[in-house]
Design goal:
It is extended and about 60 Å long. Helix content is about 40%, strand content about 5%. Helix 2 links the parallel strand 1 (about 20) and strand 2 (about 40-45). It has about 160 residues and is mainly α. It has a two-stranded parallel ribbon with strand order 1-2. The chain contains 6 helices and 2 strands, in the order αβαβαααα. The mean pLDDT is about 80. Among the domains are: about 1-10 and about 15-55, no CATH class; about 100-150, no CATH class.
Length: about 160
């Protein structure tokens, strides 16, 4: 599965290595997976950057999954019911859910290169709205409609300048 993902997504390892953030479970620490990763040039990370939690991506998506209003509070009838619900959730998450870290575009839009056009259109719409109704902005700029080249789950924070009272 990992080999297929690296090859199908045409992941190129340029100046920075590709890192798989994994939990500490036995499947993620197996010799077979480690050998495959080494062959592909993928490095392992077994903890969230600067935080001691397990896999941040799976932890994040599990929280989103469990807090969805449609999540069955009484559990699933059987494995097929769980798979069907999860398939619908993943489809929603990737094709409908607009992520704040992606400036409110969907992962699919970002992945397929549609985000710059969507954000440029959004910026134009916001600029026009501000021109027509400047009182709504109270001398504030419009929302940031830029797209980050790289999105980080847990970005480094710049030190705050000391405030003078």
């Amino acid at each position: 599965m990992v080999t297929k993902a690296v090859l199908s997504e045409k992941i190129r390892l340029a100046d920075k290595p590709l890192i798989l953030h994994a939990d500490n479970g036995s499947p993620m620490k197996s010799a077979t997976l480690r050998a495959t990763m080494e062959k592909l040039g993928v490095l392992f990370s077994h903890s969230r950057p600067r935080v001691s939690n397990d896999n941040p991506y799976s932890e994040s998506i599990f929280k989103t999954l469990k807090y969805r209003p449609a999540f069955p509070s009484g559990g699933f009838k059987d494995i097929e019911d769980a798979r069907a619900w999860t398939y619908r959730f993943v489809s929603w998450y990737n094709h409908t859910h607009r992520h704040s870290a992606l400036n409110y575009v969907t992962p699919e839009q970002r992945h397929k290169g549609k985000a710059p056009e969507i954000l440029a259109k959004r910026k134009k719409t916001l600029e026009e709205a501000k021109r027509k109704h400047p009182d709504r902005w109270r001398n504030r700029p419009i929302r940031n409609c830029s797209i980050e080249e790289t999105v980080y789950l847990n970005p480094e924070k710049e030190p705050r300048e000391k405030r003078r009272d």
